[in-house]
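Shapes recur. Our protein:

. . .
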Amino acid sequence: MSFNASVSAQDFPILTRKIRDDKRLVYLDSGATSQKPHVVIDAQSNFYRMQNAAAHRGAHQLAEEATDALENARQIVANFLNAHHDEVVFTKSATESLNLVAYAMGNAEKGNRFHLTAGDGIVVTEMEHHANLIPWQQLAARTGATLSWFEVTPEGRLDLSNIAQVITDKTKVVALTHQSNVLGTIIPLQEIVKRAHEVGAVVVLDACQSVPHMPVDVKALDIDFLAFSGHKTVGPTGIGIFWGRRELLAELPPFLTGGSMIENVTMTGATWAPAPKKFEPGVPSMAQAVGLGAALTYLTDIGMNNIHEHELSLTKYLLKEFEAIEGLTVIGPRDMNMRGGSVSFTVGDIHPHDVGQYLDSQGIAVRTGHHCAWPLARKMGVPASTRASFYLYNTQDDLDALVTGIRGAQKYFG
């Protein structure tokens, strides 16, 4: 696949739409959710049409086919991450995946490596999306553990100058985003992982903004747990991934309980099935998993390196164009060092919501607000910002339309 508007329009049906008085849709909000190609829509629809049955239940042919479809999707995810098949857990979202690991740690009994008590430490960063902040706040409150964090510099980078003071021998968990959904900053993960493992802490990676956009190899990153969402990965909504090292999943208690995740049940107790079943109670999201498998196959066929380079090219172009817009301020890194395709900005005294509404009137979809990262917005000194986020289907023409739209907003609001 080449990166051009005609192919994108062909693969992604929604991009053929006209909106707001017959204007071309310019979709620049993939950081919130990505659009879906025909192959994903068809895969999910075909499952419901021809194979719909409860996976891992029943002895009939449809149940067998549904089970095969689900487990094939699990293997596709495993291959995509360079992981083992039994390390991949299906959830309904990345938010659920992150809550899964946090609540499971809270369920750990004394003697379990994940058991937290007063004096233990949990480390996050000021960059975190609420989905990777609030679960750890809540875990600290329930267990008495101390919550610490890496601060963000005015340039939108993590300040690791005090890494030995933040990650101490009391630290049990380091949970952090791989790429900021607001700033586009890619963090210096290697240094953090090295320090965390030196003190025996586990590393939980929120990879929602990295897995869809660049190659992610869990073995090479040397992390312990990872979460990402299907809907940001040209896949369906209602499906997320929780990955963990095989030996750690064996020790981690379950998060939710019910059918399918048990080994044996009596009237007074139960024992758990091995992972991944231990973390997948109830009928799984089968059609969504099949759709995610189709999405990751689609991305793999294009090449994650190709997608990443394409997005870097767009980001570099937009940052250069933004330099010529008087009054526009980029929130976060203004260079291409360790950053991805998400650019947040303010335009003089125009409220970001007004900027977003004007752009919408021109057919341009962006995100406005604090982007579910309120502490980061406060740290950067802005109550809100406008965010443009790119993906493989975006073109330079889309960015030109954005620049024209911003200039139009400046004229409209005086």
User: Anything to note?
Assistant: The chain is about 40% helix and 15% strand. The domain at 42-300 is CATH 3.40.640.10 (Aspartate Aminotransferase; domain 2). The mean pLDDT is 96.
